[in-house]
Amino acid sequence: MAGGVTGGAAGAWSDRFEQGLHPFIEAFNASIGFDLTLLQEDLDGSIAHARMLASCGVIAEEEAVQLVEGLEMIRTEAADGRFNPGLADEDVHFAVERRLIALVGSVGKKLHTGRSRNDQVGTDLRLWLRRRLDEIDGDLQRLQRALLDQADRHQSTMIPGYTHLQRAQPLCLAHHLLAYIEMLQRDRQRLGDIRGRVNICPLGAAALAGTPVPIDRRRTAEDLGFAAIYANSLDAVSDRDFCVEFSAAASLVMAHLSRLAEEVIAWASEEFGFVRLSDRCATGSSLMPQKKNPDVPELVRGKCGRVFGHLQGLLTMIKGLPLAYNKDFQEDKEALFDAYRTTRDCVEAMAILFEEGLEFRIDRLNQAVESDFSNATDVADYLVARGVPFREAYQLVGAVVRRCLEQGCLLRELSLEQWKELHPAFEGDLHEALAPRAVVSARRSEGGTGFDRVHEQVMLWQERLKGSAFG
Fold this sequence. Notes:
Elements: H1 23-29, H2 32-35, H3 39-55, H4 61-79, H5 92-104, H6 117-153, E1 158-163, E2 166-172, H7 173-198, E3 200-201, H8 217-223, E4 228-229, H9 233-238, H10 241-267, E5 275-277, H11 295-318, H12 332-357, E6 358-360, H13 362-369, H14 376-384, H15 390-407, H16 416-422, H17 430-434, H18 436-441, H19 451-464
Parallel strand pairs: 3-4
Antiparallel strand pairs: 1-2, 5-6
Helix pairs in contact: 3-4, 3-6, 3-8, 4-5, 6-7, 6-12, 6-19, 7-10, 10-11, 10-12, 11-12, 14-15
């Protein structure tokens, strides 16, 4: 056999290797710079594995105690800032194993019995994501509560409703905000579904084919809180569906946040003037002293591209991979970590924005709903209620709107006599029916913007958000 192995990471391999990696390739190959994020999960998985090995008689009970004590010592060192693996450690798994051997001696070399880094990293990733799913669900619920608090305060406030970004019909402002609460609820439900598929344990699948070591996979799965184990060892080490699923769900969260952000940006403009931004969540211009910029929603809108990009990157990574493990999977972590961090930061930023960063300008909102033709449909509905066919009423009102535009007036400014000249069905209660508040109140259909219906929904959501995780 040739002389000792040289090079940092080469110490992780068998004596088949005579030389260490080229320094650049060593750095190119290493993941320690980012997968140290998984340290706590790696320690948890290793502790469960050590205890299982002892329970199955693979190692002695006192050896398992030594291993667990050593792993907990590493946890303490990390908390104190004394565990600082370098490039030579290659990844978090080898860094832990090498430090464990230094702490407890040769017994540390027994920890890796019956497992591979392939099933180990899959386990770590699932443990990590399971915890983060719980955290992001709490953040989404916080944003829902912030929106609900605003909705509760504005149950009697109106806002123009738009289709094609054209004034359509007046709405209750609370109804508008509740729509985003519904979107976020679907996001929470999707994340809850993903959590169920994340909560399956690959540990014990080893490199790809299982192991002849008499292990108890269900014991480690139960100790780690997993609901089940993978039934196929090949699938266990090569499945990254959960990374893609999370990135897809996170992309939808970001899409919903971006839609809300875009509305806030428009509402805060001079052209709309529907909201006033507080100094806590806005910045100024380095040149124009009068400006207050909506940085929070603009950043949220801009960061969507990062999360969307990670989804595409992950899909591209897995699309051509043969079974089972491939080094390509090293690329899943940075994408997953950043998609999570970006999404969670944006959810929290939007929650703060609605908690203390903006104030709705009721005067401007009232002015807006009273100065357009968004009650035109209600004129048609008025005629329909008096027996006029809808299409006939629709055409008549369209002609009236055109005449008003030519004359520079609004529908409510026409006299009753002028209305009666258009159709005899118009009566003295017409102007009252065309008032914006009456228009909104009349939309009593289930799920509609009528004030009574909106109040029901506010009450329902106040109860619902007291509920359990993931909706």
